[in-house]
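Issue: copy button drops trailing tokens. Both records pasted manually instead:
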Amino acid sequence: MERFLIKSPNAKPSSKVEEPPPKKSKKDYDKKYDTLKRKRAFQDAWLKEFPWLRVDDKAAGTCKICRQFPMLADQKCGLYIGQIISRKDTLYAHEKSAKHASCKLKSDREKLKNTNTKFEGDLEKTVQKYNEGQTDKFKMLFHTAFGVAKNRKPFSDYEYICSIQKKNGLDLGSDHLNRKACVEFVKSISESLHDTLVSKLKQAKFYTVMSDSSTDSSIVDQECVLVRFVDPDTKSPVTSIASIEALHTPDANGVFSAIKNGLKTIDIDIENRDSKPVLACINMDGASVNMGAKNGVAKKISDCVNHKVIVTHCVAHRLELGVLDAAKTESYLEQFESTIKRIYRFYSPSPKRRAHLCSISEVLDKDLIMYSDIKSIRWVSSKRRAVNAVVQDYEATVMHLEQVIETSKKTDEKSQAKKIHSDITQVKFVKYMHLMLDILRHVTSVSQLFQLNDLLIFEIQEAVNTLYTHLHAMTVTPGESLQEFYDTFDTDARLYKGVKLNGPLPKVFAEDNDIIRFLRNISQDILHRFSNLSDVPIVNFSVFDFRLWPNSLDDLSVYGNADIVSLVQCYENILSEEDKANIPSEWQQLKVRLSMQKSGHPLAVLTQILQSNEKTFVHIATLIEMLFAISPSTAECERSFSSMNLIKTPSRSSMSQANLLNQMRIVMSGPSLEEFDPTDSVLYWLGSSKGSRHLTHKPKSKKPVEPSSSSANIDIEPEQQDTQLINDTRAKLKEKLAKDQCSVQ
């Protein structure tokens, strides 16, 4: 308090003795010692304590596990890059980091796959327990979980299926039978498939990235990322799901970020120009956000590499757009499609109308095809089904509509029936109905070909040219269905299959300029949509279609040489010097070999060349693998969204992103239930726990209640004991109340 008082100038100094400075603690002396005198150096004993540590001659340490899995590790960490280690704290901090833990987990999973590997610590105990009689039980549990996921069922079905299996006498134990266990098992199966995919991709040379987006049941935009590559075991092209990512923003930056993150999950860094495998193709739909020339997703991905990348617009989508382009030139087709949809909407929601339609078709002895809608999807199959149903059910539909017009008392129903009846009894409608059936028959067959997973890029041109010839031939002679109309229609009575038609009579086919003009437009529009097939290097890959090779050896010797040189020059940045030097000579040997196998399909024959692994074709096999890796269609993306809608239903709209990916990976990339081997998945599940897995849980035993000393020798029934306890309690309360009253008095 003295320092707060105002002292007189004549006042004497205080006689208080100053306190000595406090003694320095041992910690302070240690800090001073560490700073001034202590010399830190690497200790050899740390290598035994941290077995993942690797040190070079200059005492620069790195983590062996993190270096083994660069996509999971923290690549900015000092122990990943390499740093001088002089403190043990650095090693402790790295060992406890999340990135190192994930790398160690993956390393343990790979060790589990090798039965000769020695396990340590908790993992050794768990594997020992598993091998002591739990194998069969867990295989059955994993088979059940796999079946639930493969059939797109909810995880809660697992518990019910297990109860049925136990009812049938299977010994599944009493543990791991709930929904939580199913989620863990499905995750383990998915991670096992993921590891297999990553392992195969490391052996592949090239890959194609495919991507498309759709909205799920919880109104979340999902970006599905798939890759196509050559399977190192079968040497055939395969397509697998990499990831499904929730889009934060549906613009080019958001989609690019989702694709980048999805590829990172399978250890592909798209921004690393030296990453393997090499990106060969980008396949997407024709949306401007994907195909924009300046800022599209494909442009952003192409800028990440330093070599030529083929960018393909899905061929099935292009085929649909070619048909739609031609439809815009014919004004009546819009009215025609509107009438088809109106028929569907008239019959679809009414079971009564459909029943009457069925009864009329039975009277006419006709097979009825239920009406389907023309869906706004990219494939044309729905259009053909809808038109085919109208042609097949035409007579029954007209008779039923006439019956509705005469007997219905509902004004709305009668007006709808009148409008539809008026439209479909026009000569022009019936004529275009048969014309569209002829066109869609050929277009649908090509569309189905374009949806194959193993479609090769040079097969597209042949299919497009074949479709063009079919459509162009129809400008000279009518197609099968249209010819049937001309043969069936009675121009004098204006009757078609007993139905009187209205409107102008049809012209002779050769003079029907509307139909001929429409057929020519659709042929030209389809060719225009596929005009980029003549671009380099796509057109150069057609030389591998040996069905087009000349038969003469003289002509064969020079055939395709310029295309092979063009391919080598186009991909000179990713081909080795040996490849560039030896591919031309191996091309001559390949032509001689394949010229004797022209009867087979190119995919099967070229797959045999890769499987043989002959030294004669070791360099040109690189170009064949690139051909196999190029994907021209995103049909698998559409199939993935069909699976997504069946998995994440409105009743499961709260499903997490991880569970959605795990189940979709099993559905799309998993084997059949008969071929599924759960061994790797079980081992992954055993190694994914922080400690040892509790394979079985001992039931909690209830401790016996010891009788009190006062009633130990009394043989009383339980009910009598409860009554006696209540009476004793009441007596004690009365005694206490009596004492309280006495004290008050």
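Record 2 (pasted manually too):
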Amino acid sequence: MGGIGKTTLAKSLFEDSFVVDHFDLRIWLTISEQYSAEQILKVGLEGKTAGENEICESLDELGTRFYQKLFGRRYLIVMDDMWSTEALDDLRRYFPDNDDGSRILLMTRLSGMATSLGSHDPYHLTFLNENESWRLLCQNTFSQNGCPYGHLEKFAKDIAKGCRELPLEIVVVGRMLANSDMTVKYWENVVNHISSLANLEYDKHCRKILSLSYESLPIHLKPYFLYLRVFPEDGLINLSKLIGFWIAEGFIKSKKYRSLEDIAREYAKSLIDRNLMFEQNENGCVIHDLLRDFCLRESDDECFLKFPRRRIVSGRLRVVHCNLCQEFLKGKEGMHIVQPFYIFGLSSQVNPLACDAFEELPPEIWEMPQLREIRCEYLHLADPIATDIEGEDFIILKDLHTIDGICNFNCSKQVIDRIPNLKRLNGSEWEPVQGGFRRLKELDINNTDLVCWRAESMHFPILERLQLTELRLLEEIPSGIGDILTLKSIGVWYCSESIIDSAKEIWVEQHELGNEIRIDITDGEHGVEYQIGTFTARMTGAACQSLAYSKPLRERLQEVA
């Protein structure tokens, strides 16, 4: 039976102070109906999800490392949400028998699973009794034992009974009531609705109760709940990523004096407060299997998110799945399915189940007023569609603050006028034009054949950081860059010697004027890294030798050392 409290009980045991002291190592593994033995071992090895860098290891390689981690230690392994014996069969050989009291705790909603796994005395969870149901409802609805509203107590008791003593139903309905009007009319309607479900089987009854909570959501919150379908079953949902996805989809509407991130975080808190998501830690939450099943059905009925999307599960093992069919994708499989950031609509000739990858972002991107970030890898960006109609306004992308990874960025006036609030630009080509970037704070130029760059301080009036990477042909950094009053640092990584020399000259000139600029240099030719900062230079002996060819700088460093 789902929603009866198996995971909650196991969590309480897992985190009990006696258990924590008794076992040398405790590992929580969520198996799920569709599982990956490799991913399970990765989670067991890392203890938490890591970065997204892919490390290819076979099952046996992972299993060997996992076995070595457990060997000689008294361990407790919890395997939650078991659907078949295959998962244990795949992993059992990697659990060493240390003969020291190590334990494996399995949870399943299938009654015959315990017997097939060889357990002689499984613990069967029972439904709550009437008093336990009443206390749980009151705790979730009123945050106390008992009902503080005399005119609602009878309705509250009827609701507790109507939830059939199933904890998940009670906590979801309880939080729905907590966020409702405390009026007799509303509560009476809830009682009548739940009473009409009395003859349904448990599974159907639970779905209807969850539907009641969903229907009571404010209409603006419903798409945020339905969007949870894109996350894998039993996976930890990173709140920062969830918020980023909501914003990228255009769900969040801007409000005066409030950032989109703050608004999205408030909406996430509303879902958690209604027990439609359950908070796991400061930046992570989960959705119960039954709630996710309801989410899938409801989103299908409403044709919500019907485009296929790749979703990457964070972790040292890169696991990708499609949100539409929920299938896991391995290797290069599914690379034609794009992420939500880069979907601009499909023509009638395009199969919506196979979105082809592209090498150029279409000009329609300049007609997306809510666009906030463009992040990609070596894609071309089409210029805005020019208009010859005098007086016709064009769309201003006032929320766009980051452009990263465009390999042909064109700083023409028609582009600059559309992005007045750009704060970060990372492109691999630079075509200087008049007009400048009034709000650009970070500028990265990398991996380009740029030879000549002409620029003055007025082009970047509030630039704080300049990063140059692998520019072998560029002759020099424009001296006018050093005159920018807000400039804090210049980074030069694996660039030509002439660029390094010009960076040093900028430092000398600005230091003589009393301006503080830090220069970070990675000199590939001499194999050294060093930093030139205000009143000091931190470098190794080899770095000092590599600086010797710049006599003016060397003398200046000696003066200020």
